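A.,

Following up on our hallway conversation. C-alpha cells first:
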C-alpha cells in the first residue's frame, strides 16, 4: 500500500519547476507585449475592457500553452515511450510509470481546460470592449460565444482538454493513452483556426503552418517537461525514455523550423520588417530556436550516452548520470518558456505585412482565392498553386518509402522495383492533383471538382495499394526490444486490431466507398468542403482513405483480415461499379443544382450554366470512373491466375513427395462408390 505522502514526493519537482517556468514565460510575454504595444489601451477613444483584461490575457495564455503542452507530452510518453506491457488494461495498474504520466496529464489537462475557458471570457471582453463587471456582460457573452469563430474555437479546444483530463483519470492502458493523445493533439491543432492565421491573405498556408507549429511545439515542450517531472518515477528506464523522446524532439524541431519559416514569410513583407518590434520578437524566437537545437544536439551526443553508462544509483531508483541530463533539460525548459512568452505577445500583435489588396470577387469571398481565368489547353501543365501541406505529405511519404527500400537493400533483401515505382507515382499524381490545375479549378467548377475526385479516390489509391507500404514498413522498421511502442509495433497492432477486422471487410469497404459518396454530395457537407479550409482537408482525406480501403480489399497484398476469393472480389467490384455508374447517371439527369449558395453565386464567365457544368461532372464520374474499375478487375484477374498457378505448383510438389497420394485416395473413393452402385 502506498504511503499518503507518496504523491507529494512524486511531484515534489512540480512545485519548483512549473512556477519558475511560468515566471520566465510571463515576464517574456509582458516585456514583448509592451514592445509591440499589445498591452496599451486602444487609441482613438475606442471601447476598452480595462487594464485587468489587457494584462491578464497574455498571462493566462502562457499558462494555457504550457498546460496544453504538458498534457500532450505526458500522454505521448504514456502511450509510446514508457517501457512496459500493454496487453491487458489491468496489468497497467501495476505499472507506476504509466500511472504517474496519466496523473500528470489529468492535472495539466484540467489546468488547460480552465485556462482555455477563462481565456474565452477575457477574449470576448477584450474584443467587445466591455469590462468584466459590466451588467450586460454575461448575456452578451452567451449570445456571441458560439457564433463568433475565434470564441467557438476556444470553447472546442477547452472541451477537448476537459475530456482528455477526465479520460486520463480513468485510463490505464497504453491504447487509452494513445487515444487521449490524439484528442489532445486535436485540441491544440484546432487553435490554428484563430488568430492571425485565420485572417491572413494566404489563409490556408498560414493555418497549415500554424497548426504544424503548434503541434510540434506542444509535443516538444510538453514531452521534455513531462520527462523532467517524471524523472523520479522513471528510475533506471530514464535513458530508454530519453532516447525515444530525443527522436520525437528531432522531428518536432524540423517541423517547427519549416512551419516557422513559412509563417514568417506570410507575415513579413521583406527582410526590412525584421527591424520592427514584431520582427525583433521573431528574431528572439529564432535565437531561442537555435539554442534549443544546440541543446538537443548536446543531449544526443553526450547526456544520452551518459544515461546508458554504468548502472550505479544515487538514490532508490535514480541513475548516476541523471543529474547532468536534468540540468540541461531544465535549462531547455526555461528557454522554451521564454519562446512561449514571446509567441503569446506575437499572437496579440499586428504583423507589419499589410493585407494584400486583391480585386474583390465572389470566388475570393467564398474560397479565399481570386477567381482563376478561363482554362486553356496548356492549363494542364502551366496552372499551379502550391499547397504546402499536401506537397509536404506527398514528398514525405515517398521519401520515407524509398528510405525503407534502401534499408532493405543495404542488408541484402530485395524489394520489387515496380512496387516502389507505383508508390512514388501515386504520390506524384496526388501532388499534381492538389497543387496543379485540378486543385485550382476544382475550387470553383463542379466538373473540375469531379475530375479531382476521380483522381484522388480511384487512381491514386490503386497506385498506393500496389506499393504494399505496410509490408515494406514491417520488413524495414526495427522491432523494439525495450518495451516501448514504435512505428512497427503500432502497425502490427493496427493490422491485428478489431477495428481492422471491421473496416477490412470487403462489404464494409464497398459500402463506405459508395454510401459516403452519396452522403457527401447530397448533404451540406459538400458546400462546407467548398467554403472552409477544414472541410477541404477532410474532403481530401476522405476521398483518399475511402478509395485506398476499397482498392486494398480488392487487390491489396498487405497483411490484414482474411482475403475473399478472387471470384467474390470481382463480384463485389462489379456491384460497386454499377452503383457508381448510377451515381454518375443521377448527376447527369439531375435538374437541381448542388451547393446552390456556392455555385449559384460564383458567376464565372467561363461557366455560364452551373447546372450544365454539374452534368458534365456527372459524365466524368460515369465515364472516367470506369477506367480505374477496369484496372482493378484486371489486377484481380492476374492475382487469381497467379494463385491458381501457385496452387498447381504446390500440388505437383506434394504429389512428387507422397507418390500422388491425394489422387490415389480420390480414385479409391470413386472405386468404392462404383462397387456400391453395382451391388
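Then the amino acids I'd put at each of the 679 positions:
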Amino acid at each position: 500500500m502506498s504511503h499518503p505522502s507518496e504523491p507529494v514526493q512524486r511531484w515534489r519537482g512540480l512545485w519548483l519547476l512549473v512556477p519558475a517556468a511560468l515566471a520566465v514565460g510571463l515576464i517574456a510575454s509582458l516585456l514583448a507585449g509592451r514592445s509591440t504595444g499589445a498591452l496599451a489601451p486602444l487609441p482613438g477613444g475606442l471601447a476598452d475592457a480595462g487594464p485587468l483584461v489587457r494584462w491578464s490575457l497574455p498571462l493566462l495564455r502562457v499558462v494555457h500553452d504550457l498546460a496544453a503542452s504538458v498534457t500532450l507530452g505526458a500522454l505521448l510518453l504514456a502511450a509510446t515511450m514508457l517501457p512496459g506491457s500493454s496487453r491487458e488494461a489491468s496489468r497497467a495498474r501495476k505499472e507506476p510509470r504509466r500511472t504517474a504520466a496519466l496523473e500528470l496529464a489529468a492535472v495539466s489537462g484540467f489546468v488547460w481546460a480552465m485556462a482555455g475557458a477563462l481565456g474565452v471570457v477575457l477574449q470576448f471582453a477584450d474584443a467587445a470592449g466591455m469590462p468584466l463587471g459590466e451588467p450586460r456582460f454575461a448575456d452578451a457573452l452567451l449570445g456571441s460565444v458560439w457564433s463568433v469563430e475565434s470564441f467557438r474555437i476556444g470553447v472546442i479546444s477547452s472541451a477537448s482538454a476537459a475530456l482528455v483530463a477526465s479520460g486520463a483519470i480513468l485510463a490505464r492502458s497504453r491504447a487509452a493513452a494513445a487515444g487521449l493523445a490524439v484528442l489532445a493533439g486535436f485540441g491544440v491543432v484546432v487553435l490554428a483556426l484563430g488568430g492571425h492565421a485565420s485572417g491572413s491573405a494566404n489563409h490556408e498556408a498560414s493555418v497549415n503552418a500554424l497548426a504544424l507549429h503548434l503541434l510540434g511545439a506542444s509535443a516538444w515542450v510538453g514531452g521534455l517537461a513531462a520527462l523532467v517531472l517524471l524523472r523520479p518515477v522513471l528510475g533506471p528506464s530514464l535513458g530508454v525514455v530519453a532516447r525515444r523522446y530525443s527522436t520525437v524532439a528531432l522531428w518536432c524541431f524540423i517541423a517547427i523550423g519549416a512551419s516557422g519559416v513559412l509563417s514568417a514569410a506570410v507575415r513579413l513583407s521583406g527582410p526590412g520588417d525584421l527591424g520592427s518590434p514584431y520582427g525583433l520578437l521573431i528574431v528572439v524566437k529564432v535565437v531561442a530556436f537555435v539554442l534549443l537545437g544546440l541543446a538537443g544536439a548536446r543531449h544526443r551526443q553526450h547526456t544520452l550516452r551518459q544515461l546508458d553508462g554504468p548502472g550505479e544509483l544515487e538514490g532508490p531508483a535514480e541513475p548516476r548520470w541523471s543529474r547532468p541530463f536534468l540540468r540541461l533539460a531544465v535549462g531547455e525548459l526555461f528557454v522554451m518558456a521564454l519562446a512561449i512568452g514571446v509567441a503569446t505577445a506575437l499572437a496579440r500583435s499586428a504583423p507589419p505585412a499589410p493585407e494584400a489588396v486583391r480585386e474583390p470577387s465572389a470566388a475570393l469571398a467564398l474560397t479565399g482565392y481570386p477567381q482563376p481565368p478561363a482554362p486553356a489547353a496548356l492549363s494542364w501543365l502551366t496552372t499551379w498553386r502550391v499547397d504546402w501541406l499536401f506537397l509536404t505529405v506527398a514528398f514525405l511519404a515517398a521519401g520515407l518509402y524509398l528510405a525503407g527500400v534502401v534499408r532493405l537493400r543495404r542488408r541484402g533483401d530485395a524489394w520489387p522495383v515496380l512496387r516502389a515505382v507505383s508508390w512514388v507515382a501515386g504520390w506524384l499524381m496526388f501532388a499534381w492533383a492538389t497543387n496543379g490545375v485540378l486543385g485550382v479549378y476544382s475550387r470553383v467548377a463542379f466538373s473540375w471538382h469531379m475530375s479531382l475526385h476521380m483522381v484522388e479516390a480511384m487512381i491514386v489509391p490503386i497506385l498506393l495499394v500496389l506499393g504494399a507500404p505496410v509490408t515494406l514498413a514491417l520488413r524495414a522498421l526495427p522491432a523494439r526490444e525495450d518495451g516501448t511502442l514504435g512505428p512497427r509495433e503500432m502497425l502490427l497492432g493496427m493490422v491485428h486490431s478489431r477495428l481492422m477486422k471491421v473496416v477490412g471487410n470487403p462489404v464494409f469497404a464497398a459500402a463506405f466507398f459508395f454510401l459516403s459518396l452519396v452522403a457527401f454530395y447530397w448533404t451540406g457537407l459538400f458546400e462546407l468542403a467548398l467554403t472552409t479550409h477544414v472541410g477541404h482537408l477532410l474532403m481530401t482525406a476522405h476521398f483518399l482513405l475511402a478509395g485506398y480501403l476499397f482498392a486494398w480489399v480488392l487487390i491489396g497484398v498487405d497483411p490484414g483480415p482474411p482475403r475473399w476469393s478472387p471470384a467474390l472480389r470481382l463480384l463485389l467490384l462489379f456491384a460497386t461499379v454499377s452503383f457508381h455508374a448510377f451515381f454518375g447517371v443521377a448527376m447527369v439527369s439531375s435538374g437541381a443544382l448542388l451547393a446552390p449558395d456556392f455555385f449559384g453565386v460564383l458567376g464565372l464567365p467561363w461557366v455560364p450554366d452551373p447546372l450544365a457544368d454539374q452534368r458534365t461532372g456527372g459524365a466524368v464520374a460515369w465515364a472516367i470512373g470506369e477506367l480505374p474499375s477496369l484496372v482493378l478487375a484486371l489486377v484481380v484477374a492476374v492475382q487469381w491466375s497467379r494463385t491458381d498457378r501457385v496452387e498447381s505448383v504446390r500440388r505437383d510438389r506434394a504429389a512428387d513427395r507422397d507418390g500422388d497420394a491425394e489422387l490415389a485416395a480420390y480414385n479409391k473413393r470413386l472405386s468404392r462408390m462404383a462397387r456400391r452402385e453395382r451391388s
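The CA atoms of residues 432 and 466 lie 19 Å apart. Curious whether your intuition agrees with the design.

B.
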